[in-house]
Amino acid sequence: MSRRPPIVIALVFLAGCSQATLPYKPEEQPKGAKVSAAYQMLADRLKVEIDTDHRRLEDIFIVRADGTAVRAQTIENAPIVTPGRGRPSVSYRAAPRSAAAAGSGRGVGVGVPVGEGPSRIEGHTFATFPLAQVGPPPWRLHLKLAGVAPTTILIGGAPSR
After folding, report:
1. Going by C-beta distance under 8 Å and a sequence separation of 6 or more, which residues neighbour residue 44?
2. Are 143 and 150 in contact (CB under 8 A)?
3. pTM above 0.90?
4. What CA–CA distance (Å, rounded) separates 82 from 131?
5. Residue 129: what are its φ and ψ, rounded to 5°?
6. pLDDT by residue for the chain (161 residues), tens digit each?
7. What three-state secondary structure class fits 154?
């Protein structure tokens, strides 16, 4: 059996990981990030899912056709992780007493990890807007992510390519 098919599948999978994952994207991606969004209309709310490319969301709002900005009612941020950072640990050691040693050894150690990389968002961020205030689709979703220029994604029409 050839080992090439698993390698090809892995390469295709990894290539897919490098692109924005949700159907709506800005006309031009902000330099240094791949951003995308999706939406779901609930009873009286518009729920927007944002792939922030592991960046913290700093600002989000929808601009209506009349130019009015509508801020999100709620924002559910994904967890923040720091790569390479372990959990604090506590350990206890006891050394056996030997005839050659003058005494026994015992000790308690506490380990506190020191950051080994920049913090990043792990997962998607969700924001909800009052449907009555944002009006009918399409919606102009304005995003500001940490470290990149603000961007706008048009959601609610035909998905981006």
Report:
1. 130, 131, 132
2. yes
3. no
4. 36
5. -125, 150
6. 555 555 544 444 444 444 558 999 999 999 999 999 999 999 999 999 999 999 999 999 999 989 999 999 999 988 888 766 555 555 555 545 545 555 555 655 555 555 556 777 889 999 999 999 999 999 999 999 999 999 999 999 888 76
7. strand
Q: What are the tokens at 56?
A: 């913290």
Structure tokens at 72: 């999100």
Q: Quickly tell me which residue has 């994904």 as its tokens.
A: 78
Rounded Cα gap, residues 57 and 73, in angstroms: 15
Is residue 122 exposed (0-12), middle (13-18) or buried (19+ Cβ within 10 Å)? exposed
Look up residue 84 and give its amino acid. G
Q: How many CA atoms lie within 13 A of 116 on its CB side?
A: 7
Does residue 144 contact residue 58 with C-beta atoms inside 8 Å? yes
Tokens of 111: 């380990």
Point out which residues pair with 5 in neighbouring strands: none
